[in-house]
Amino acid sequence: MNEQTSLDINQEADHPEQLIIEHIDIWTSAILAKSTSGRGSSKKYELYGITKLRELILELAVRGKLVPQDTDDEPASVLLEKVAAEKAQLIKEKVIKKTKPLPLISNNEKAFELPQGWQRVRLNEVLNIFNGNSINARLKESKYSNVTNGLPYVGTKDVGYGFETLNYDNGIIIPYEEPKFRVAKAGSVLICAEGGSAGKKCGITDRDICFGNKLYANEVFHKDLKPEFILMNFLSPTFFSQFSDSMTGIIGGISMAKFSHLVIAIPPKEEQQRIVAKVGNLMLLCDQLEQQTGDSVDAHSTLVEVLLATLTESINSDELKQNWKRIAEYFDILFTTKQSIEELAKAILDMAIKGLLTDNLDIKVVPLEKVLSFGPKNGYSPREVDYSSEAKVLSLGATSTGSLLLEKSKSFDKEIAADSHLWLTKDDILIQRGNSAEYVGSNLLIHEDIPGFIYPDLMMKIQADSCIHPKYLSIVLSSPTSRRFMWERMVGTSGTMPKINQKTVESVPVPLPTLEEQSQIVAKVGELMAICDQLKEKLQ
After folding, report:
1. Spans of all domains in the chain
2. Helix 227-235 / helix 269-312 crossing angle, nearest 10 deg
3. GO biological process: what's one of them (predicted)?
4. What are the two backbone dihedrals, phi and then psi, of residue 430, each rounded to the nearest 5 degrees?
5. Do 371 and 473 meet the contact criterion of CB atoms below 8 Å apart?
6. β-bridge partners, 191
7. Closest Cα to residue 164, out of 109, 212, 201?
8. Are strands 215-220 and 189-192 parallel, antiparallel or unpaired?
C-alpha cells in the first residue's frame, strides 16, 4: 500500500472522484488477511485499501480540501456567533450549565492551515456534551427487557464505526417516566469514550434515545451546524490522533474534560453543506467499490479453495500430477494474494502427510508420543531483568513467523544447569502451547545448537526418536490436519489465552512411512514450498 500512502492530500482537491478513479487499482487491490484460529470466521480478509480511501476522503473533508471555497459564503465566524447566542440562551434557561473559560488554542493544536472563512473551536464551544447511564445485566433483564413504551437504550455494542444506522432493537427500552436517565435527542452524535472501541465507534441518532455511560452524546447548539459534519470530524485520522493522545488508564479512555477541549475546524455554513453532500456521494462510491471488490475476492477465494481440493483429494500420485499440471498453468492468475499462496502451502503440507507426494496412501498412523525420544515438556519463564544477560529466554514472537528470531528474547539472571532440557539444541521442535488462537500449536524446528537460549513456559519442546526424521515431523505438525486437531482441543478460548496441554500434543496422529520415504517427502515439500516463495516474491 506504499503507493496509496504517498498520495498528496492536497492533490485533486477540486475533483476528488479523480483521486479514486485514477488510483482504483491501489484502493481495491490492497487486501489484508485477518487472523483466524481454525474455528472458522466470517470474512477472512479486510478491504484495507478501501478503508484507507474512506479515511482519505474524511481527512480531505475536514481540512477543507474536498470542495471548492466560495468567497460569497458567509464566514464561519457568523455561524459561531449564532451558536454562541443559542448556547448562552440555554445557559440562561438552565437547560445546560455554564462552562469554565476555555484556554486559547495553541499552535501545537493546529494540525493544518485553515482555509479561507474557516475557524477553529473546542468541542464544547459548539456542542452540548454528556455521557449516558449504565445498567447492570440483572436490571436490564428484570426491569427493562419487557417494556413496550419508552425510549430505546443504546449501548456501545449497538454503535457502528461511522455512517451505519445504530441498533435500536436490542430489546432494552427505558420507560418515559424514568427520571434518572439522560436522553440524547435525534441528531446527536455518539462516540465511544472508553475501552478498545474508544474513539472508533461513532454514529448519529435518528431518534431520541437513552444510552450507555461509555458513550458521549454531542448535541449541536444550532441547526446550521450539521451533525454529519461533526461525525466526519470524529471519524477523521486527524481527530483520532488528538483523541488517542488524550486517552489515559489501563483500559484506555478519555475524560469528559479532555474530550470537550479537543479541537475541530468549522467551515462556513454553505461550504459545510457542500462537504456533507460530497462525502455522502463519495462514501456511496466506496460502498459500491467495497461490494464489487468483496464479491471478486470471495469468488477468487472459492475458486482457489475448490481447485486446491482437487489436489488434496487426488486418489493417487498419478492423479495428483495430472491435477497439479492443469492448475500450474494458471498459477500466475490463481495465486495473486498472500492468502491464496498460504492456502497453496497448506495444501502442499496436507498432500505430504497423506502420502500423495510419494504415492504411498497406506501409511501407518501412530500417536505423536510413540515417535518421541523427549517431551513434550514445558519451558520456563524466569523474571525479566532490565540489563543484558548472557543467557536469554525466547518470547513467543521468536517462533511465531516460522523463522527463529533470536532478537525477540528477554534477559534473566537465574542459574540454569548446563545439562538442563531448557537449552536449545539441534533438531529440537518447539510447539507453542499458549498464545492467540492462530499461533497455538504452531511449531519450529531448531536447525543447530543455540548456546545461551532457553524456551519459555508457553512453549513445549519435543525431540524425534530414531524412527522419524525431525524435518518430516515438523511438516506433519505444521499441516492443516494436525493444526485442526490441536485447535479443536484448545481450552480457555473465552476471555483467557487459549492453550493446549501435553496430552493433546502427545495424541496428535502422525503418519509414519519409512525413513527413506520421509526423506523423499521432505525434499518434495522443499521443492514445492520454493514455488510458493517465488509466487510471494512476485507480490512485492
Report:
1. 1-69+277-310, 74-267, 365-512
2. 50
3. DNA restriction-modification system
4. -100, 130
5. yes
6. 202, 216
7. 201
8. antiparallel
Angle at the Cα of 506 (from 403 to 363), degrees rounded to 5? 85
Q: What pLDDT score was predicted for residue 5?
A: 36
Which one, of 221, 225, 206, 220, lies nearest residue 273 by Cα?
225
Just give the CATH number of 74-267: 3.90.220.20
Counting as low any pLDDT under 50, the low residues of the chain are 1-14, 21, 24, 26, 35-42
Phi, psi at residue 375, to the nearest 5°? 85, -175
HSE toward the beta carbon, residue 7, CA cutoff 13 A: 25
Does CATH place domain 365-512 in 3.90.220.20?
yes
**Can you give the pLDDT at residue 392?**
96
Strands 32-33 and 509-511: unpaired
SS3 529: helix
303: cell is 475458486
CA distance 330 to 308: 12
Please check whether residue 69 is in contact with residue 115, taking contact to mean a CB–CB distance below 8 angstroms: yes
Half-sphere exposure for 536 (CA within 13 Å, toward CB): 13
Q: Quick one: pLDDT at residue 17?
A: 52
Using H for helix, E for strand and C for coil, what is the string for 162-207? CCCCCCCCCCCEECCCCCCCCCECCCCEEEECECCCCCCCEEECCC
Q: What is the pLDDT of residue 66?
A: 84
Residue 302 CA to residue 299 CA, distance in Å, equals 5
**Alpha-carbon distances of 490 from 381, 432, 501, 530, rounded to whole Å:** 21, 12, 8, 32
- Res 12: pLDDT: 43
Please, where are the H alpha helices in 313-459? 317-328, 331-334, 338-353
Amino acid in the structure at residue 498: P
What is residue 41's predicted lDDT score, i.e. its pLDDT? 42
Residue type, 411: S
Q: How far apart are CA 188 and CA 225, in angstroms?
A: 12
- Span 10-39, pLDDT tens digits: 444 445 555 554 554 545 555 555 544 443
Enumerate residues 6+ apart whose C-beta is below 8 A from 332. 538
Give the sheet arrangement for strand 409-411, strand by strand: 409-411, 392-394, 450-454, 423-424
